[in-house]
Amino acid sequence: MNYSKNKLFIDNIAVDKIIKRFGTPTYCYSYNQLKKNIFNFEKNFNKLNPLICFAVKANNNVKILNEIGKLGLGADVVSKGELMAALKSNINPRKIVFSGVGKTSNEIEFAAKKNILLINAESKSEIKAISKISNKISKSIDIGLRLNPNVDAKTIKEITTGKNSNKFGLNEKEVLDLVKEYKNSKFVNIKCLSVHIGSQITSHTPYLRTLNAIQKIIDKSKFRFEYVDLGGGMGINYGQENKLLNYKKYSQHISKFIKKNKVKIIFEPGRSIIGSAGYLLTKIIYIKKTNKINFIILDSGMNDLMRPALYKAYHRIIPCKKSKTKISKIHDFVGPICETTDKFLSVKTFQKLNEGDNIVICDVGAYGKVLSSNYNLRIGASEIIVKNSKVLRIRKKENLNNII
């Protein structure tokens, strides 16, 4: 994304032209940025030769998943719907892992019959359910055990998943007991030890503590795991981060871990792959001026982008036409939803804006569209992708009559 003659462009196509054709609100993805993010991730870990499974919960658009699959990635799914989307996108089933704390029997059986790589189990009850299904379909099922390492990822508390106060995974004793109980089972094959400690992590320290917790399990169990699934959660720069994850240090520690344990590594990145490749294109409906605040009322609301309301997440906002005139007054960028939390950003100074101007909310590729809703009975935004100087619609805007 860049300015040329004060006009904003995404991959050399003027955003104003895109909006004129597709309207607002619209989610727009840059294929070039997506490809760059994947190559950067692979470059950081290329010595480890990992299996990289994109976290479909971050973005489930089938066209996006298809492009990700063509670039060599697998998928991490957490529901039957996400698994169906991954398979429809032609992602290799042997590159798919199924995570999640509440898989139903229907979902487990569906996944087993599709011959995916792993089902990462998160409780003893789930393993019992998998064993029962294995017996029913006369097929042994490959599983991973998800360890809860009780590690604080030092991220937003709502997206921390590796502490013992979180619902996810098994504690050390439970993992050791389950390895002992099921290591010779004819119904389940324990292939993997899995972890995931949270999202938007910008320090390698929690990951190193997690590696130590995994090593303790391996040493105590004396069990040969074929895979260690290290999850994802790598943070990106939303414009406020002072530091980002040191991939080099993390990779070096994993390299030592692999040498010692002779395992294949699985990663489950989502945000670091698609986050910075997505933009929400929106328009200023009204500018409501008060003594202290200019309310910039957009045609996108928290139903389109939930993260700021849900997590107080920060997203940069950029005008499609650059102006040198600055207004030193609080600007609150808000949506039309009947909630005070329907606010995207508050800044002390912003350039001069006019009603009808087009605006871009940045870094929304991950957990943007997937968290959207029809709250206030508003229709869902369309999705497009910019690839090879072409703009393609990859999801139509919803129809209000159909929803009603």
Task: Give a description of the structure.
The mean pLDDT is 94. The protein is an alpha/beta fold and 404 residues long. It is elongated. The longest helix is centred in the middle third of the chain and has 17 residues, at 205-221. The chain folds into two domains: 2-29 and 275-403, Lyase, Ornithine Decarboxylase, Chain A, domain 1 (Beta Barrel), CATH 2.40.37.10; 31-273, Alanine racemase (TIM Barrel, Alpha-Beta Barrel). Helix 4 (80-88) links the parallel strand 6 and strand 7 (96-98). Helix content is 30%, strand content 26%. Helix 7 (172-182) packs parallel to helix 8.
Task: Name some characteristics of this structure.
single chain, 404 residues, alpha/beta, Lyase, Ornithine Decarboxylase, Chain A, domain 1, TIM Barrel, 2 domains, nine-stranded mixed beta sheet, eight-stranded parallel beta barrel, 20 strands, elongated
Q: What integer is the average pLDDT?
A: 94
Largest sheet: 9 strands, mixed
User: How many independent structural domains?
Assistant: 2
Number of strands: 20
Level of helix content?
25-40%
Quote the CATH topology of the largest domain: TIM Barrel
pLDDT < 50 runs, ≥5 residues: none
Q: How large, in whole angstroms, is the Cα Rg?
A: 23 Å
Number of helices: 12
CATH architecture of the largest domain: Alpha-Beta Barrel
Strand content: 25-35%
A few lines on this structure:
The protein is of the alpha/beta class and 404 residues long.
